[in-house]
Design a protein that fits this description.
alpha/beta, 5-stranded parallel β-sheet, 5 helices, 5 strands, 22% strand
Length: 139
């Protein structure tokens, strides 16, 4: 599949919730193939990467989305992008706090590999207050 547009939708995905699903479906409408990459973040505490990977894979399989690949990665995200010839990273943004954080991360991606582009998708109004932290705190 040459000349196809591929992207990475990365996250730690403590819980793969409706906000993530919304961004995934929207990314799928823009790209031929979406790699949902379950990653680690040393600043966050969560269940192990294998369990999170299996949880995300289960949800994606239930959605029956074509050309969505779930992967796990425990290194720099741009290295995954390089290995798979992917030039786009999709990130969801809920508010100005997310935007400031994502802008800083985008600079790091660019320092690591100047061919990478970050595509921001803003959360739908009804999903912008949704977060894994809030979901877990209600349990």
């Amino acid at each position: 599949m040459q000349n196809t547009k591929k992207c990475i939708f990365p996250g730690t995905f403590k819980i793969f919730h409706n906000g993530h699903i919304n961004i995934l479906k929207r990314a799928k409408s823009l790209f031929d193939t979406v790699y949902v990459v379950v990653a680690n973040n040393d600043t966050k505490q969560y269940i192990d990467i294998n369990t999170r990977f299996e949880n995300v894979k289960k949800v994606v399989d239930e959605l029956k989305l074509d050309n969505v690949i779930v992967a796990k990665w425990d290194a720099y995200l741009v290295e995954f992008a390089k290995q798979h010839s992917i030039y786009f990273i999709v990130r969801g943004i809920r508010d100005t706090t997310d935007f400031k954080y994502e802008k800083a991360i985008e600079r790091i991606y660019k320092q690591q590999w100047n061919q990478i582009e970050v595509v921001y998708l803003f959360a739908d109004k009804e999903l912008e207050d949704l977060s894994a932290t809030k979901i877990l705190s209600k349990k």
